[in-house]
Amino acid sequence: MATRKPGPWQRPAPKRRGGGVKLTAVQVEEARARAEAAGRRYPNLVDNMHVAAKARREGPAHQGATEESE
To answer: pLDDT band at residue 70, thresholds of 50, 70 and 90?
Structure first.
């Protein structure tokens, strides 16, 4: 059976090359929606990580997308 990777709080911080990634206003709203759907008042690290990873997977064309262009 495969072992689970440690959660984000148990892993060492990554080496910073250019600083952290700033979420856009649309991404912040998406993280807030995830938190609210999970019953939390504010987004936590996992919500923010999910939104940032989704933006990386979709590529730079979707990172600055607004609600009108979707």
So the answer is: very low
Identify which of 61, 57, 65, 68 has the alpha carbon closest to the alpha carbon of residue 25. 65
Q: Which DSSP symbol is given to 52?
A: H
Supply the DSSP symbol for 14. P
39 conformational bin, left if phi > 0, alpha if psi -120 to 50, beta if neither = left
pLDDT tens digits along 22-65: 899 999 999 999 999 999 999 999 999 999 999 989 887 655 55
Q: Report, in this order, helix, strand and coil percent for the chain, each rounded to 5.
A: 45, 0, 55
